[in-house]
Design a protein that fits this description.
single chain, alpha+beta, five-stranded mixed β-sheet
């Protein structure tokens, strides 16, 4: 018998993919199939039950506060996108590993694919407000991925030609594998598209309800923004922040889209003698108040961007609580904490005393003359001037429960943040920007300052640690909004350091002591280095 060596591919012969490469491709296709089926199933349950969303939310919940702060500083409002991409990359790596394993041990590889579905189901069930149905999309996706991987791996040709009938049952040639891979891809794309379309159809009611929602006129309109509040210095933040530019910091990977026609609010708990259950129509039957207020996030670093000013329209929260029979602690009420709960399960604890001390705490329905955007809490959110958002500004509101700080820790408090957090006095240089190069001569140094619910009395600027110089303030629009400021600097050539500080209406001067955002907000003075051309 004459034995011949297998032919090796020459320089001009295209190399065919090996079994491991086909296994890796099969793993990725199986993962895609699993995600597509899960997306389709989530359309029948709820968007938050989709695996990437559920796993992402569980990761956010489990991430230490310091890591969350790093992510916000590093990625800003893109932190959720980065997290989703990271989870997707990890899923792709596991899918490739499952495919490679399945080439040698099909049962083990398919079990790994199914295990990822079980992990997604566990993550979905760990989320606030989870129901048993939330596990179904991940389980369906896991089983779909396992089945697809099994079929694809069985279709991979054996490692070398064998006599007829000795290969694995069902084994194909590479063309057969390619046809099955294309069919898997097409069916998965179809299922994913159907899931997205059905999900969009499910959101259509919410979209239509917002499109058809007309804000009622305020019973108590806000006065016009004072002339001179907007200094109109190029490079400064507008006095009123447009809705599209208003910062957003929350844990929702998928923005809840709530149908205003089916929205309900429940008010109950300690000291509530008359529990309330309201729809939007019943809420809007009460007097509506318009109020200008600046919001800021506790994650905002000194000089950071997470602050915005808007004109809000809503119902006074204190009036609603009194209607329910609630008394503040100073009047003998048993509850000192108001726990607001979002439709996605987020809980935010607010001091009852702050809500009922006379400030314009609102259940807001309008923002800058239009219904709340979905990203900012449509149809109803809370606004409590003077407190950081994590203890006051619950979006997509659905429940208010009266309790005590001793009895219950809200979401962020369980993650090492302070129970109560009044906004600290801050000032920011908007122009010139850090490391900017400016011409010598008169330079406008300008920005914003806020001491919410106390008001800004003075802003000062100094150059190169020299004497403090008082800046000109824009007109005040109450104590609940920021104020613009400007100081004209006769800039000499060279490198210089600018620093700003503010004084509130109580006479307290913004501290220069540097502290991070955890546990109750950053402190320090914003400092900017610039170069002046000669």
């Amino acid at each position: 018998m004459i034995r011949t060596k297998p032919r090796r591919a020459g320089p001009g012969t295209p190399r065919r993919p090996g079994r491991n490469a086909l296994g890796a491709v099969g793993g990725l296709l199986a993962a895609f199939a699993g995600l597509a089926v899960a997306q389709l199933a989530a359309a029948a349950v709820r968007p938050e039950a989709a695996p990437l969303t559920a796993v992402g939310g569980a990761v956010v919940d489990a991430t230490p506060a310091a890591v969350k702060e790093w992510a916000i500083r590093r990625f800003g409002t893109d932190d959720k996108l980065v997290l989703t991409l990271g989870i997707g990359a990890l899923l792709a790596a596991v899918a490739i590993a499952a495919g490679l394993l399945a080439v040698r041990r099909p049962a083990a590889g398919t079990a790994l694919a199914a295990a990822f579905g079980v992990l997604g189901a566990a993550a979905a069930l760990s989320r606030p407000e989870a129901a048993w149905q939330d596990a179904l999309p991940s389980l369906a996706g896991g089983f779909a991925a396992a089945g697809a991987l099994y079929l694809l791996v069985r279709a991979i040709p054996p490692p070398r030609p064998r006599p007829s009938g000795t290969g694995p049952p069902g084994a194909m040639d590479r063309r057969g594998f390619g046809r099955l891979a294309l069919a898997t891809l097409a069916l998965s794309a179809g299922a994913g598209y159907a899931g997205r379309r059905l999900g969009a159809f499910g959101d259509a009611g919410a979209t239509a309800s917002r499109a058809g929602f007309v804000l009622p006129p305020p019973t108590v309109p806000a006065p016009p923004v004072p002339a001179g509040a907007e200094l109109r210095i190029p490079g400064t933040t507008p006095f009123i922040t447009p809705n599209r530019a208003f910062y957003r910091v929350d844990t929702a990977l998928v923005v809840p889209r709530v149908d205003a026609d089916t929205w309900r609010l429940r008010v109950h708990g300690d000291g509530v003698s008359k529990p309330l259950a309201l729809g939007l129509r019943e809420l809007l039957a009460r007097p509506l108040v318009e109020h200008d207020a600046t919001l800021t996030c506790v994650s905002n670093e000194v000089g950071g961007p997470y602050a915005g000013n808007a004109r809000w329209l809503g119902v006074r929260l204190a009036d609603l609580l009194r209607e329910a029979g609630v008394r503040p602690p100073s009047q003998g009420g048993p509850a000192d904490q108001l726990v607001a709960r979002s439709v996605d399960g987020m809980t935010i604890g607010t001091p009852v005393e702050a809500v009922m001390d006379g400030r314009e705490a609102l259940l807001a329905v309008g923002m800058n003359g239009e219904p709340l955007p979905f990203a900012h809490g449509f149809p109803v959110r809370m606004i409590v001037p003077g407190l950081y958002g994590y203890v006051s500004a619950c979006k997509w509101l659905r429940e208010l429960r009266l309790t005590t700080f001793a009895a219950y820790d809200a979401y962020w408090v369980r993650r090492s943040w302070a129970q109560q957090a009044p906004v600290k006095t801050q000032s920011r240089i908007d122009t010139p920007r850090p490391f900017a190069e400016v011409a010598a001569g008169r330079v406008a140094v300008a920005g914003v300052a806020w001491a919410l619910h106390r008001g800004i009395a003075r802003v000062e600027v100094r150059v190169d640690a020299g004497p403090w110089r008082e800046a000109r303030l824009g007109a005040a629009d109450g104590d609940d909004t920021w104020r613009q400021w400007v100081w004209l600097w006769e800039a000499a050539p060279g490198g210089h350091t600018l620093q700003v500080r503010a004084t509130d209406r109580t006479g307290a001067v913004q501290t220069g002591e540097r502290a991070g955002t955890l546990p109750d907000g950053a402190t320090g003075r914003h400092t900017v280095t610039v170069r002046v051309r000669g």
